[in-house]
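Case study 2.
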Amino acid sequence: MYSHERRWLRRLAIVNDYVRIPYANGSSYASQFLYREMTARGHEVTVVGPNDPHAKPGELPPRHISLPSIPLRNHPGFYLAMPSKPSLDSLRDANFDMTLVQSPSGLLYVGAWLRQQHRVPLVCVNTLHMPSVYNVLLPDALNHTTTVNRLFEDGLIPMVEAHSRDVYNGGDALVCLSPGLKGYWRDRGVEVPIHVIPRAIEKRIFDQTGQEDPFAPEAKRGARLVVVCRHAREKEVDRVMRIFAQHVYPHVEGATLTLVGDGPEHEALKEQAKELGVDHRTYFMGEQGLQKMPAWYRHADLFVYASLSETYGQVISEALWCGLPVVAMDDGMGVAGQVTDGEDGFLVDPKAEDAEAQFGRHVQLLLTKEPLRRQMSEKATRNAKDRSDPEACVQRYLEVFEIARDHARRHPERHPLKAYGSLANWTWLHATVGAMGLLRKPVELNRNQAATGTWTLAPAS
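Prediction:
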């Protein structure tokens, strides 16, 4: 049950981009974790997000408000919530004590509207680094066009970030997942309190041991590299494959690279493996169920990652928790906030002229020096458990809710005109994104139909 000093927090809204989780994504898993933990502590938690016409009852949280939505055509399974009078009435009638928004989309304005119109304290979580991911909307023909990229980088991205900044400042607290992102948003004018809270690890899932080896029989122990992520441009899996082909495979006997995940670049990565001459040493396993992931980490030898787009990088946390050392690019954000260079892995400056060769040398070292790899494995687990302890994560959120409540009491202004402006911005933003979704053909995601985990951890019906 909730503690005496937090009895005021009876009804919590968690605003999330998905009410049904169609494929693996760290932000939604974090929302599911908080839903379970807060519910277990006696709080009444409601998930707010876009209506998914394909959702089955067992895939939805027991308490939810599904908003009218339009599909993002190039991203099947992703829906863009839109405001309507009945949905706004449902939000009002829920009488929330706190809103937690874990979304970078127009759903931020759900929290802004509740704050401005009904004085519900608002805590936002930054879950997206816009400069790294905008190109997922662009077709291949435009992705490498200088004029188009400048339009986004010099015009659209600053405008969207300014909108996010204004929502953050109109709320009561901002949660960033890494110290680097706290400085990033301070530099962009966020003035409300900013708190750094790393994501937690779900012990019921990631403390599992004794699972069967899921790797291909040809992938011999002692030389197994694994990368787990969505196969999208911003994850730079193509760079990992290039490093493997040029700087690992020729130097480490029996080295293999296993890719767990799916996404729009999946088939292109398979073609790249053939072109690089390492398709016989590269294994594409597709998306795997969340409950199966500990086996992939515990039976691998090294986790490799080149993404520079991570506000956190949940897969890094999972790998380290399971004792898997990491070699990654130093992103100055989520990954760098988790990997301790020289202790539980290595970080490489992505701008160095020989960055890929450096990366490869670190991989070679760890694959050929088993005692060092074992030492880093032990340190990885200790560091991850210190940083990602679920009880500590929940307590930090409860503390932030207290701070946000106090902030809202000291700034109790009600802004009906701003509330209508939030509805207009919400509608405009999602209508624009929906239209941009027509620029690129639909992608395939989770073609394995892997189980993504439910809000209650019970099997989906």
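The radius of gyration is 22 Å.
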